[in-house]
Amino acid sequence: MILSLLLFLLSVSSLFSSSPADLSFEFYSLACPEVERLVKDAIRTQADLDPSVPGKLLRLVFHDCMVEGCDGSVLLEGDESERSDPASASLGGFSEVEGIKRLLEVFCPGTVSCADILALTARDAVEMAGGPSVKIPLGRRDGRVSAVSKVRINMVDTSFTLDQMAQIFFSKGLSVDDLVTLSGAHTIGVAHCSAFSDRFKEDSQGKLTPIDPSLDESYAAELTSECPAGANSSTIVSNDPETSLVFDNQYYRNLLVGKGLFQSDSELFNDGRTKEKVKLFSDSQESFLQSWGESFVKLTAVGVKTGNEGEIRKFCGRVNG
Fold first, then answer.
1. What is the pLDDT of residues 117-147, one digit of tens each?
2. Quick one: CA dihedral 94, 190, 135, 40, positive or negative?
3. Nearest residue to 36 (alpha-carbon basis) of 179, 158, 155, 134
4. Are 78 and 84 in contact (CB under 8 A)?
């Protein structure tokens, strides 16, 4: 127990080698004063062309911040990079982020990091989908390391128990309340059938039947219809079957009636430690959106690199030089 505690404290200490206090709301006020407007306008255009963009960008920042900290490492290409892990194969939004980077290189060359672009695009994506407007501090620098070996040990799997999810969140300096709040990101976006296949079994006739009693029967039938046995690996379903393009508290309402898509979603309502928070958010969208802003700021400050650490990449997909 003592050894585990020491390892935990060491991991947290390492993670926060740079303080979020090094970030600033006025970081680009002189060097690139129009950065937030430029990013927001670009996201609005992208979302108008493709309504799935907000969900992609929000998921992308989660994968970035949870692995090496919020340093743009998820954007780096390469055979052994984070993007090469099978769990990253379904990620999207890379071209949108790179497009914004090219735009900012025209107006403010060598100034705005890809890590800051990721944080801003996710923030704006939520707002475009009907979520709150959140002010976030800036000044993140881009990391030079992206290792496939770091992905699985730092990411929450859709089959995780609450204890497993909480352990990962604690290691990032995030709380159980942050876990419940940030899981609300599943109110938008899509998932591949394989992400929840563990909740079903295939019988001798090749028909899928639910094995998770917490899953609503009618919802389970919908899922097996959309994702039958042998479904194409690219087949997707909406995370939220009710309001899939709107950032609202419907996700929590779904959990109350057994319509959480992932086992990890259902865990939040089935566990007494988080059940009341789920019920609060299902009753009050205002409470959820307020908590979202607070938890999102914490998430996007995890493991940031500032000052002389890292670099400002010219292209988000590769390190400089």
1. 999 999 999 999 999 999 999 999 999 999 9
2. positive
3. 134
4. yes
| Residue pointed to by tokens 């780096």 | 76
CB-based contact 17:101 (threshold 8 Å) = no
Q: Which of 102, 97, 63, 108 is CA-nearest to residue 82?
A: 63
- Does the pLDDT of residue 5 top 60, yes or no? no
Residue type at position 101:
K
Q: What is the pLDDT of residue 3?
A: 35
pTM for the whole structure? 0.91
C-alpha separations of 207 from 3, 203, 231, 280 in Å: 47, 5, 12, 37
Burial 284-315 (b: 16+ CB within 10 A, else e): eeebbbebbbebbbbbbbbbbbbeebbbbbbe
C-beta of residue 51 within 8 angstroms of C-beta of residue 245: yes
Helix, coil or strand: residue 88: helix
3-state SS track over 152-194: CCCCCCCCCCHHHHHHHHHHCCCCHHHHHHHHHHHHCCEEEHH
Catalytic residues: 63
Q: In whole angstroms, how far apart are CA 98 and each of 61, 108, 155, 164?
A: 14, 15, 24, 33
| Cα dihedral 145, 21, 153, 275 sign | negative
Contact residues for 216 (Cβ-Cβ < 8 A; gap 6+): 257, 258, 259
pLDDT of residue 304: 97
Cα distances (Å, whole numbers) of residue 79 to 54, 89, 147, 158: 27, 13, 9, 25
